[in-house]
Write a structure and sequence with these properties.
This protein has helices at residues 2-28, 44-63, 86-95, 108-120, 134-137, 152-165, 182-196, 216-225, 236-249, 266-272, 296-310, 320-337, 342-351, 414-417, and strands at residues 31-37, 72-78, 101-102, 125-128, 142-145, 173-179, 201-208, 229-234, 255-260, 280-283, 354-356, 359-361, 375-378, 399-401. With 419 residues, the protein is of the alpha/beta class. The protein folds into 2 domains: 29-148 and 291-367, 3-Layer(aba) Sandwich (Rossmann fold); 152-283 and 380-417, Response regulator (Rossmann fold, 3-Layer(aba) Sandwich). A 7-stranded mixed beta sheet has the order 7-6-8-9-10-13-14, sandwiched between helices.
Length: 419
């Protein structure tokens, strides 16, 4: 009998050890975070920054033990800056790769087509730099990493027209030009809303195909109407095309600028050099003392050390903090609920102010920021020679609006800033 009991005891111990090892193995299974990212195509200059920031976040969180005691893996695919590629990628991530969480993608034009897939699967999403994509969906599990507040469309245009109201003599007429694409149309809608609350008169309001290469005819058509201001809404390739055409044609309205996303990355700014002097643009994050939040400098030190080898934007201030904070928001929901349950995570994010490298964020309706923090800047005294270092701070791009973040004054009119 004693021999039987000893064998039974050993057997039970073996089973318990096996179960323990299995449980330990299960606990160590990685949490998979899935997304698409623009790594080629028109907005890859920004998408590559986002990917590097997310990789840094993964390494940081894993160095601290992961999420829920499990390591984090990134599962991602290149969407080629093409909205049509996005639904298929997110379907694969969720149904085939069986990711636990999703984030992104980057950019309005890509987040919008991802939304229906994410909604069908009832997942939480934190969109990266996407303007007003949830205005139509009203999906309660979507959150935006874009500081555009409760009226996101207006936020990208408001500063431009508030600055215009302060000038003497005040400009009177305005032209609106935008790409026929999701982001640009949303920003142009914001301009129209801002104009409704003013005495400005619109003399031109047209869109152009996203594939447009030659912008000189568009600029000449606007120039013929002699508007005091031009508000443009464009992604990177067309931002550059518009600016080059304005300089080639010699068009100098009193104010020129708007939501020119191409000027948020370092390489296009440095390549254009003095051609961008006088242009006003909206910015979502600046390397300014008022934006120095806990954890930011540690992120940027890692990012800027890794950027040269990866061939990405060497400074990264516009996009790296946004992507990193998107992952921080999602992680806060996971750790705050000790769960991967989407409903619990969404409720937690809605109910808490969350600290990130871009500051403490609270979300309001439709997952937009409770308060806008979009700023307007102007390029001034920019040098040629592809000088990247001049964009490390706000010395060549002072913040003009709002007053709480102001670091400089407008050079007006536009022609004066180009001298």
């Amino acid at each position: 009998m004693s021999r039987f009991i000893e064998v039974l005891r050993i057997g039970l111990l073996t089973i318990l050890v096996s179960l323990g090892l299995a449980a330990s193995s299960l606990a160590a299974d990685p949490i998979k975070l899935g997304f698409s990212m623009a790594l080629t195509g028109g907005v890859a200059v920004n998408g590559k920054q986002c990917l590097l920031a997310l990789q840094i976040w993964r390494d940081d969180v894993n160095a601290k033990g992961g999420l829920l005691g499990r390591p984090v893996d990134l599962v991602y695919y290149d969407d080629q800056s093409s909205p049509s590629n996005v639904p298929g990628i997110y379907t694969k991530l969720i149904d085939v790769d069986k990711v636990d969480l999703v984030v992104g993608p980057y950019a309005t034009n890509m987040v919008a087509p991802a939304m229906p897939i994410i909604m069908q699967h009832n997942l939480v999403d934190v969109g990266i730099q996407a303007l007003a994509v949830n205005t139509e969906f009203h999906y309660p599990r979507y959150f935006s990493i874009l500081p555009s507040g409760q009226n996101p469309r207006l936020a990208f245009a408001e500063g431009f027209f508030e600055i215009a109201k302060q000038q003497n003599p005040k400009p009177k007429t305005v032209a609106i030009v935008s790409a026929d694409a999701e982001f640009s149309k949303n920003a142009a809608d914001g301009a129209r809303e801002a104009i409704k609350n003013s005495d400005f008169q619109t003399v031109y309001d047209k869109t152009y195909p996203p594939q447009t290469q030659d912008f000189a005819p568009i600029v000449r058509a606007i120039q013929a109407l002699n508007p005091d201001m031009v508000f443009a809404a464009a992604y990177p390739p067309d931002s550059i095309g518009l600016i080059r055409a304005v300089n080639e044609v010699g068009f100098t309205p009193k104010m020129f600028g708007g939501a020119l996303i191409g000027l948020l990355a370092t390489a296009p700014k440095a390549a254009l050099g003095p051609a961008i002097n006088g242009i006003l643009i909206q910015e979502t994050f600046m390397n300014a003392p008022s934006f120095n939040f806990p954890g930011l400098q540690a992120l940027m030190t890692k990012y800027q050390a890794a950027a040269p080898a990866q061939g990405v934007d060497p400074l990264g201030y516009s996009y790296a903090p946004a992507a990193y904070s998107a992952a921080q928001i999602l992680a806060a929901g996971v750790e705050g609920t000790k769960s991967l349950d989407p409903a619990k995570i969404a409720d937690y994010i809605h109910g808490h102010a969350i600290s990130t490298v871009i500051g403490e964020i609270s979300f309001g309706a439709d997952g937009e920021w409770a308060k806008s923090r979009v700023v307007y800047t102007q390029f001034q005294h920019v040098n040629g020679g592809n000088d990247i270092a001049q964009f490390k701070d706000t010395s060549k791009e002072p913040i003009l609006w709002p007053a709480a973040f102001k670091t400089g004054d407008l050079i007006y009119p536009y022609a004066e800033a180009k001298k």
